[in-house]
Amino acid sequence: MYVSPRLLAVADGMGGHAHGEVASAIAVAALAELDRDLPADGDPRGGLLAAVAAIAGTLDEQVRQDEDFAGMGTTLTALLRQGDRFIGAHIGDSRAYLLRSGTLRQLTTDHTWVRSLVAEGRLTEAQIATHPRRSMLMRALQGGGTAQPDIFEWRIRQGDRYLLCSDGLTDYVPTAAVHEVLRAEQDPELAVRGLIDLAVGSGGQDNVTCVVADVGRRVRRGWPRR
């Protein structure tokens, strides 16, 4: 994950533990460079697209240097603030949520096979949770890949609460439970701890990463150590 006063991001590696760690670290390094180099009045959309291209290029180079890294990749969900808006970049099945006036809204769409089946009317929302291939990605940042991220824009309001998380949370914790924690815990650090405790307590075997950011307050982030 990456967190600064203007940039929030979660990258969840894939391709085995060691290779996934490399891929997600590459993504975070590119975002840190973007955060450092992009002027306050710079182009956030162009900056995010350039960062994604840099991540893909570095993954390509890693695979060319060592074929053992073939198949490694990462999801990426990032929010870059400029003034009173967020520009978002998203690819994969990590997620961004907004809690506003008590209502929780998912800002991103999972790039998974089961989500495509729901869009086609071949699967219901209720069937996703138990589908054996629910984590099969259709789009991700991978070496040799050409997938492009979704880019979206969101107007920020005072009192907004944002959650960025890996699927280690959402695969094991129902949206209603996530909503309840975000509404009930005023302290973002307690909200992060509560979400991670729910994932671990629900039998989650995956890494879980959460970033909770309140507009006008400090950002909290967390993950369980195994």
Estimated share of beta-strand residues: 15-25%
Largest sheet: 5 strands, antiparallel
Terminal Cα span: 17 Å
Helical coverage, percent range = 25-40%
Radius of gyration: 17 Å
Low-confidence stretches: none
What overall form do the CA principal axes indicate? globular
What order do the helices and strands follow?
Answer: EEEHHEEEEEHHEEEHHHEE
What's the total number of strands? 13
Could you state the oligomeric state of the chains shown? single chain
Total helix count?
Answer: 7
Structural class given helices, strands, pairing?
A: alpha+beta
Question: Topology of this protein?
Answer:
Elements: E1 2-3, E2 7-10, E3 13-14, H1 17-37, H2 44-65, E4 73-74, E5 76-82, E6 85-91, E7 95-100, E8 103-106, H3 113-119, H4 125-128, E9 141-142, E10 150-155, E11 161-165, H5 167-170, H6 175-184, H7 188-201, E12 210-214, E13 219-222
Antiparallel strand pairs: 1-2, 2-5, 3-4, 4-9, 5-6, 6-10, 7-8, 7-11, 11-12, 12-13
Question: Would you kindly provide a written description of the structure presented here, covering whatever features stand out?
Answer:
A hairpin with a 2-residue loop joins β7 and β8. The chain has helices at 17-37, 44-65, 113-119, 125-128, 167-170, 175-184, 188-201, and strands at 2-3, 7-10, 13-14, 73-74, 76-82, 85-91, 95-100, 103-106, 141-142, 150-155, 161-165, 210-214, 219-222. With 226 residues, the chain is α+β, with helices and mostly antiparallel strands. The mean pLDDT is 89. α1 (17-37) runs antiparallel to α2 (44-65) and α6 packs antiparallel against α7. Helices cover 36% and strands 25% of the residues. The protein is globular. The strands form three sheets. The protein has a five-stranded antiparallel β-sheet. The two termini are 17 Å apart.
